[in-house]
UniProtKB/TrEMBL annotation:
Membrane topology: Multi-pass membrane protein
Listed transmembrane segments: 18-40, 61-86, 98-115, 127-147
Name of protein: Potassium channel domain-containing protein
Intracellular or extracellular location(s): Membrane
Polar residues bias (residue ranges): 204-219
SUPFAM superfamilies per UniProt: Voltage-gated potassium channels (SSF81324)
One BP term from GO: stabilization of membrane potential
Length: 219
């Protein structure tokens, strides 16, 4: 998120920060993607499929209602309730400023104008910082799950198709014909090689001359 309140000052620290970011950011994205893909099966796909099969409701309607309910729960658990808690724990923050911090943090904007736990008179400051880190990590995963849930809606899939690059049918036909020609030539080459192998494995038969047959009959 990069609040900017803690930055490296030495050249070595800046170089280490660059290397760490180049390695850490892709692994963090892979980790979040793997976690979200596993969570969304139990949080979104199975509940929607259960209501669709068990009660016979339309799958699209169930998906829309589920996405709205999930979004409301996420906003309540990771925006409204934490904002109320921060407004109590932070002396200089009101509810709006606390909600602003939650939104800026979980949307990965990270302006850094509001950072909790910076007061030296803060009780249990280290534990407070660890709790904020866990909150941000869980909140970011919840936000990604909600976004993925909305992206799987049928209406949004139709909207996303408007931005897809359409391929020409002639190009597709050319690719199909080239693929068929390659596959046909490979099959013909295989058949020819199999015939050659069969001829090589056949036993060698010698034809008897007619003179030897006549001599055997005379005897």
């Amino acid at each position: 998120m990069g609040y900017g309140h803690t930055v490296p000052l030495s050249d070595g620290g800046k170089a280490f920060c660059i290397i760490y970011s180049v390695i850490g950011i892709p692994f963090t994205l892979l980790f979040l993607t793997a976690v979200v893909q596993r969570i969304i099966v139990y949080v979104t796909r199975r509940p929607v499929l259960y209501f669709h099969i068990r009660w016979g409701f339309s799958k699209q309607i169930v998906a829309i209602i589920h996405a709205i309910v999930l979004g409301f729960i996420t906003v309540s658990c990771f925006f409204l309730i934490p904002a109320a808690i921060f407004s109590v724990l932070e002396d200089d923050w009101n509810f709006l400023e606390s909600f602003y911090f939650c939104f800026i943090s979980l949307s990965t904007i990270g302006l850094g104008d509001y950072v909790p736990g910076e007061g030296y008179n803060q009780k249990f400051r280290e534990l407070y910082k660890i709790g904020i880190t866990c909150y941000l990590l869980l909140g970011l995963i919840a936000m990604l799950v909600v976004l993925e849930t909305f992206c799987e809606l049928h209406e949004l899939k139709k909207f996303r198709k408007l931005f897809y690059v359409k391929k020409d049918k002639e190009e597709d036909q050319v690719h199909i014909m080239e693929h068929d020609q390659l596959s046909f030539s490979s099959i013909s080459d295989q058949a020819a090689s199999m015939k050659d192998d069969q001829k090589a494995n056949e036993p060698f038969v010698t034809s008897q001359s007619p003179t030897s047959n006549d001599s055997s009959l005379n005897n």
